Write a sequence for this structure.
């Protein structure tokens, strides 16, 4: 059996690990958790983390003074409120919040997203507070 066939089989069964030569099955990873607003790290890209999260409701207004933040909607709908207007996203759409821009993610229905940001970036940026959580690795 070739390596690519083995990798495809692993992805199809949801058993792929975050190894250098294995694909990450995003749908399977999303099935492993249900907590909201909790970022789950699924991969590293240089000095960045690729994270998944499930959202429902409104987060806190915050900014990230030193970095941009990429949001990619996998399922559901996400509105990113900005001080100068809202950005509405559906499945397959992404938006990059520029560094320093104050924003507030809002999901009227349960929404799954992928985030890309530098390692160590707090989810609540400069706001802090009770919703601050470090990303958890998702095996």
């Amino acid at each position: 059996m070739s390596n690519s066939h083995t990798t495809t089989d692993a992805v199809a069964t949801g058993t792929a690990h975050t190894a250098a030569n294995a694909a990450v099955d995003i749908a399977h990873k999303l099935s492993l958790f249900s907590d909201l607003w909790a970022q789950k790290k699924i991969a590293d890209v240089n000095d960045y983390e690729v994270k998944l999260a499930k959202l429902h409701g409104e987060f806190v207004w915050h900014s990230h003074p030193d970095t941009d933040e990429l949001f990619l909607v996998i399922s559901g709908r996400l509105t990113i409120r900005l001080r100068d207007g809202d950005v509405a996203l559906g499945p397959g759409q992404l938006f990059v919040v520029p560094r320093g821009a104050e924003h507030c993610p809002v999901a009227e229905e349960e929404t799954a997203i992928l985030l890309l940001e530098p390692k160590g970036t707090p989810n609540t940026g400069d706001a802090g507070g009770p919703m601050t959580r470090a990303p958890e690795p998702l095996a």
Observations:
- The radius of gyration is 16 Å.
- The beta strands are 40-45, 48-58, 69-75, 78-82, 85-89, 94-97, 103-118, 136-137.
- The longest helix spans residues 3-13.
